[in-house]
Design a protein that fits this description.
509 residues; alpha+beta; FAD/NAD(P)-binding domain; D-Amino Acid Oxidase, Chain A, domain 2; Helicase, Ruva Protein, domain 3; ten-stranded mixed sheet; 20 strands; globular
Length: 509
């Protein structure tokens, strides 16, 4: 623990939680001239923010629940985010097969009309009707017509990483594998007790932002010893990954008898991702796993729609996350609002404020962060104006097009395969030259761990992107986890352990 006689560093804002909302707020605050500290108890994006359906979307089904404000905001944000990070976000067309017994055609057309016109739409194409030919269609022969519209696909965990990088470049202090074990108000500031593998330390902050996601209410009750202003509903969402179900780059949005919808989305070139589910979750968010009922549910929905029939044997991988939604007392988990609620609390006017984030969705993280700054502006009257709407995320600078970048990589790096060049371009954008700038051949990239992952990239991820272990690199930085064998993972972990030891020795020296 910090020496009691030592002067603690005092930040304007301390953020608890390294998911999309936490890094979004940290980034916005740092860019407005505030000093910012963010801690994450695990890896960035290691929970809810990497367990999404990988979409930047307006939320077509939210229209049925009359969430017009949320849908309008999300639709506008699609275009903003597409411009901010075109390397990790791309337009995608979605096909909704028509099932007349579930929703009448007029209702869907009405919803799609609103979807086309509620938010500003410049880059994305509008909706239209489609018909399916029995021979060519991947769908069951009884599905003959449907509807098509636009949304966007995103590498969700990289969206978090890029915001954290930009926050750091704006001066924020971002620390992972570090938990806030308690915090208390004292003399108009927060005193935060932090803990990581190196030990314990303290910091001060004028404002505390609780963006702990599934742990938001628990953090208030157990670590702050305060009463949470809102309840939280933990809603589990699970996905299965199977070999590619159909050719082409379009996604399908499948209606089910329970009035829910399930996506089938092209994933990592070779696979189809099917999800998500909606069920109440009462366990520890760290331990969420797909259930047998969820697996059966997703397989049944897919088999009701596609000619290719799936069984559990076809599942390559699964992932599950817990969405921390503000409790609106809805009886139906699918109908619980996906909108966000920000709660600002002070027991007395002189108390250091606490801002807690309840709910939210990936698509609207930037607007949530702007809203958070509106809440905090009265405590920092000198802060700068909103800035994130036009600011490119790392890797989008000087990026003419991802295709041109892929060609440039292939021309400059001898021996690189097209798949690796594509992965690098989409993951890093123009920042790919951070670890390739002095390289002319793959043979200069150091140890090859397999599947286009070389030591030079691994070193960069450790030094510049907070990666610590193989999960950080394979699941959240590169998405190579489906390709690596256990032996290859062990080899990577061994290299990372040795690299960590070398870094420690350099720090001591």
């Amino acid at each position: 623990m910090t020496n009691p006689n030592e002067t603690l560093k005092c930040y304007d804002v301390a953020v608890i939680g390294g998911g999309i909302n936490g890094v979004g707020i940290a980034n916005d605050a740092a860019g407005r001239g505030l000093s910012v500290f963010l801690c994450e108890k695990d890896d960035l994006a290691s929970h809810t923010s990497s367990a999404s359906s990988k979409l930047i979307h307006g939320g077509l089904r939210y229209l049925e629940h009359k969430e017009f404000r949320l849908v309008r905001e999300a639709l506008a944000e699609r275009e903003v985010l597409l411009a901010k990070a075109p390397h990790i976000i791309r337009p995608m067309r979605f096909i909704m097969p028509h099932r007349p017994h579930l929703r009448p055609a007029w209702l869907i057309r009405t919803g799609l009309f609103f979807y086309d016109h509620l938010g500003k739409r410049e880059k994305l194409a509008g909706s239209n009707n489609v018909t399916f030919q029995p021979v060519d269609s991947p769908l069951n022969k009884d599905i003959t017509r449907g509807f098509e519209y636009s949304d966007c696909a995103v590498d969700d965990s990289r969206l978090v990483i890029l915001n954290a990088m930009q926050a750091r470049e704006q001066g924020a202090q971002i620390v992972t594998q570090t938990r806030c074990i308690s915090a208390q108000r004292m003399d108009s500031v927060w005193i935060l007790d932090m803990e990581n593998q190196q030990g314990r330390f303290q910091i001060q902050a004028k404002v505390l932002v609780n963006a702990a996601g599934p742990w938001v209410a628990q953090f208030i009750r157990e670590d702050l010893k305060l009463q949470s202003p809102y309840g939280i509903r933990l809603i589990q969402g699970s996905h299965i990954i199977v070999p590619k179900l159909y050719e082409g780059d379009k996604a399908f949005i499948m209606q089910n008898d329970d009035q829910r919808i399930v996506f089938a989305i092209p994933y990592l070139e070779k696979y189809t991702m099917i999800g998500t589910t909606d069920r109440e979750y009462a366990g520890e968010p760290n331990k969420v796993e797909i259930s047998a009922d969820e697996t059966a549910y997703l397989l049944d929905v897919s088999n009701d729609h596609f000619k290719t029939q799936l069984s559990e044997m076809d599942i390559v991988s699964t992932f599950s996350g817990v969405r921390p939604l503000c409790d609106d007392e809805s009886d139906n988990p699918a109908a619980v609002t996906r909108d966000y609620t920000l709660a600002l609390s002070q027991e007395n006017v002189s108390d250091a404020p606490l801002l807690s984030v309840f709910g939210g969705k990936l698509t609207t993280y930037r607007k949530l962060a702007e809203s958070a700054m509106e809440h905090l502006q009265k405590f920092f009257p000198e802060i700068k104006q909103p800035w994130t709407e036009q600011a490119l995320l790392p890797g989008a600078e000087n990026l003419r097009s991802v295709d041109e970048l892929i060609t440039e990589i292939e021309n400059k790096i001898k021996g690189v395969d097209t798949g690796t060049a594509q992965r690098w371009a989409h993951a890093y954008g123009s920042r790919v030259w951070s670890f390739l700038k002095h390289t002319g051949s793959v043979h200069e990239l150091g140890q090859h761990f397999g599947h286009g992952l070389y030591a030079q990239e691994v070193d960069y991820l450790v030094d510049a992107e907070w990666a610590v272990d193989s999960d950080d690199i394979l699941k959240r930085r590169s998405k190579l986890y489906l390709e690596f064998s256990l032996d290859e993972i062990l080899l990577l972990d061994q290299y990372l352990a040795e690299l960590h030891e070398r870094r420690l020795q350099q720090d001591v020296a």
